[in-house]
Write a structure and sequence with these properties.
Elements (H helix, E strand, L loop, with lengths): L14 E2 L4 H19 L10 H18 L5 E2 L10
Parallel strand pairs: 1-2
């Protein structure tokens, strides 16, 4: 009698890069960080420790988004496969 358990492989279609919540969040943070470095508008309105909170919180949010990711990304808007 075989002792190996049959394995079920499920293929999940990759989604276009522009549908990635993780990439959009990181792009938003990048734009806001750049804008703040040039305009210095947000820092006077925020408490002193907000940068420390963002530095600690962003990786946690990225890990949470990664945990709920169910598919890979493609480099184009069609689902023809992974980006090369």
């Amino acid at each position: 009698m075989p002792t190996d358990t049959p394995k079920l492989v499920v293929a999940v279609a990759a989604k276009p890069w522009w549908m990635s919540r993780t990439l959009w969040l990181n792009a938003l943070v990048l734009v806001l960080a750049y804008a703040e470095s040039q305009l210095h508008v947000l820092q006077p309105l925020m408490p002193v420790n907000v940068y420390a909170v963002l530095t600690f919180g962003l990786p946690l949010v990225n890990m949470a988004l990664r945990a709920v990711t169910t598919s890979g990304l493609t480099g184009s808007s069609n689902n023809s496969g992974p980006a090369q």
